[in-house]
Design brief:
The protein has about 250 residues and is mainly α. About 70% of the residues lie in helices and about 5% in strands. Strands 1-2 form a two-stranded antiparallel ribbon. Helix 9 packs antiparallel against helix 11.
């Protein structure tokens, strides 16, 4: 220490002033970069996973809690990782939007229901036009598609994929169900209400009896529920209606 003090005393005064000036300027420049980054890190979108990513980016660790001092963040030398820190904050903000959108989709489908009504005196309940469900499908499928194109969708990929699959199945089943329902409603009175036609077209009547049995079973089961997702994603539902549609054609 004494040797260092002698060396410093031996330096010209202008050199000492220059070193202090350079050091101070450097510190100010570093703080000018770090403090805005600290402000960004205070974003409510930041979650534990984002703080862990920040630590990995900076190569240092700290205990993340409500008592985290500013000095702990400054010790990360954020000014050296400006792009990496900005990426973490951007990810957090993008993910919070995705999380919010997924929550809205879940709330939407939790509040939707399908309605059934008696068809004549057949004992069969048929599906009423599901306008609200189709509107939700149109809106939510676009939102999910946009999520799939978001480079920060990774953390929610499983949820997004799951919702895309569910809504795709709902749309497919509704379309084939309504198609089969229209045909069944038109043919029911012909093949089940007219003995003459059954005698004249015995093979067709027999085929329709098979379709009728499967249609009644599926509609009876579906009418016990109200949730579009629960109704349309029931095991074997889509396959049975596709079979009925092919036989009707």
């Amino acid at each position: 220490t004494k040797k260092l003090q002698k060396e410093i005393k031996g330096l010209p005064r202008q050199v000492l002033k220059w070193d202090v000036s350079v050091g101070l300027t450097k510190s100010i420049n570093e703080m000018a970069i770090a403090l805005p980054l600290v402000q960004d890190l205070r974003d409510d979108a930041m979650r534990e996973r984002h703080w862990l990513k920040l630590m990995a980016t900076c190569g240092k660790s700290f205990v993340m809690d409500s008592k985290l001092p500013l000095d702990s963040l400054l010790q990360l030398e954020l000014h050296n990782f400006q792009d990496g820190v900005s990426e973490v904050v951007e990810m957090a903000r993008a993910e919070i939007k995705i999380e919010s959108q997924l929550s809205k989709i879940q709330a939407t489908w939790a509040g939707l229901s399908l309605e059934f009504s008696d068809f004549k005196s057949t004992g069969v309940k048929i599906l009423m036009q599901p306008s609200d469900t189709y509107e939700a499908l149109d809106d939510n499928e676009v939102v999910l598609q946009n999520m799939m194109g978001n480079r920060f969708m990774g953390f929610f990929e499983a949820q997004i994929t799951d919702w895309k699959g569910k809504l795709g199945t709902v749309r497919a089943v509704l379309e084939v169900l309504l198609d089969v329902q229209r045909s069944w409603c038109s043919l029911e009175s012909i093949f089940l209400g007219s003995e003459d036609i059954r005698e004249q077209l015995p093979d067709d009547a027999k085929r329709f009896d098979g379709i009728d049995a499967e249609f009644r079973e599926q509609m009876g089961d579906a009418a016990q529920f109200t949730s579009p997702i629960e109704i349309c994603t029931a095991s074997g539902r889509e396959e049975v209606f596709n079979k009925c549609q092919a036989n009707l054609e």
